[in-house]
Design a protein that fits this description.
It is a single chain. The chain is of the alpha/beta class and 387 residues long. Helix content is 34%, strand content 15%. The protein has nine helices and 14 strands. A hairpin with a 4-residue loop joins β5 and β6.
Length: 387
């Protein structure tokens, strides 16, 4: 039977993600519109974003935090094009974005000494293969695979190379070991539920040293340049953004950061995220046709919660038929207004993906999952086994 309980908010998209509970356009009333971001007040707002990110995330004072263009992708590309080439590179790829970074490094930067260490969707590579003498590029959380790094212990404390971490979908939802991360990137649109467009670039002292001692042999576009006359462009990390930011988006992320502080900071954000995963784990344990794409609980993402279909007959279908079937189920939930945008990522195995970040209430996850069961059984009633 169709469930009677509906989630209060049906926003389970993995990006842009749900706004914080209670959000309304009134949160943007103080936005600095029609003013220069280079004005004293404009710079103050941008610096406030940096300061609040540092406070909530616990970023050490020696680490620089900058607001950069083009969301997390822009922040990652800025790091790759500005920092790589001085050493060999190990690229870890266990989902689509890690594969994108590997492609950029091998086909566009065309570095010679690159090792791409891969794993299938749902798994994590052998982290022991990573060399401390080489630069490392990896995603902390696989947004499209539901797999995260279990910890940072595999990154050598005495490493010679840099660790470059794409931490979008992880920052503000998981504890990050800043002493093991030389470069960290993320966007506002994930765990904070902010508007897209801007990225955050966090540089540790070792990354700054590389920037000031290494000049890449390729030309750098203006939006990628982090140094001037051989020294770090410090203004970027004090609110002087490289290109014009949206002050509306800035006001929105400030609202999200104030909310994070009000509910208890990073510990509260992590707890809210983990509560959503707990709801998913309880549902999967009681639902025979579904299982997690990531079987390893230590590596299972609590933000990008990915499910695969466990029915034997489903595995016998060709991938196109599988994707059409899961898309039909996701569309049924969208039509009912109980869950938007929960189909698996286009390059991932056919299945379902729900966002479990801190802006999602666990009560909504609990209310939504029986609808997924209902939609699956309704759409596959001639095939689904009876428990």
């Amino acid at each position: 039977m169709k469930p009677s309980l509906r989630p209060s908010r049906a926003f389970f998209s993995s990006g842009p993600c749900a706004k914080r509970p209670g959000w309304s356009p009134a949160a943007l009333e103080r936005a600095l519109l029609g003013r220069s971001h280079r004005s004293a007040e404009g710079k103050a707002r941008l610096a406030e974003v940096i300061d609040r990110c540092r406070a909530v995330l616990g970023v050490p004072a020696e680490w620089r935090i900058g607001i950069v263009p083009a969301s997390d992708t822009g922040a990652v590309e800025m790091a790759l094009w500005s920092l790589l080439g001085a050493r060999g590179v190990d690229v870890l790829a266990w989902e689509s974005f890690g594969r994108d970074w590997a492609n950029d490094i091998t086909r566009h930067l065309k570095l010679d000494d690159v090792r791409v260490i891969t794993a299938d969707y749902g798994a994590i590579p052998d982290l022991a293969q990573v060399s401390p003498d080489r630069d490392i590029v990896f995603t902390w959380n696989g947004t499209t695979s539901g797999v995260r790094a279990p910890d940072g212990d595999w990154i050598a404390a005495d490493r010679a190379g840099l660790s470059i971490c794409d931490a979008t979908s992880a920052a503000f939802a998981m504890a990050l070991p800043w002493d093991r991360l030389d470069v960290t990137t993320f966007s506002w649109q994930k765990v904070l539920g902010g508007e897209a467009q801007h990225g955050i670039l966090v540089l540790g002292p070792r990354a700054v040293e590389r920037l000031e001692s290494w000049t890449p042999p390729w030309p750098l576009p203006k939006v990628f340049r982090l140094t001037q006359d051989g020294k770090l462009a410090e203004g970027v990390f004090k609110g002087e953004t490289i290109n014009t930011p949206s002050m509306l988006a800035v006001e929105d992320v400030l609202d999200a950061l104030r909310w994070a502080d009000e509910i208890g900071g990073l510990d509260a954000l992590i707890a809210r995220t983990n509560a959503n995963l707990a709801e998913a784990e309880a549902w999967v344990a009681a639902t025979p046709w579904v299982e997690f794409l990531c079987a390893d609980t230590a590596a299972r993402s609590p933000t990008s919660i990915c499910f695969r279909v466990a029915e034997p007959w489903f595995a016998e279908l060709d991938p196109k038929a599988q994707r059409a079937m899961t898309a039909k189920v996701a569309a049924a939930l969208d039509d009912e207004g109980v869950a938007h945008d929960i189909a698996a990522y286009r390059d991932a195995p056919p299945g379902f993906r729900i966002w479990g970040g801190a802006t999602v209430d666990a009560a909504d996850t609990r209310a939504m999952l029986p609808w997924l069961d209902w939609a699956w059984r309704t759409q596959t009633k001639d095939r689904t086994r009876t428990p």
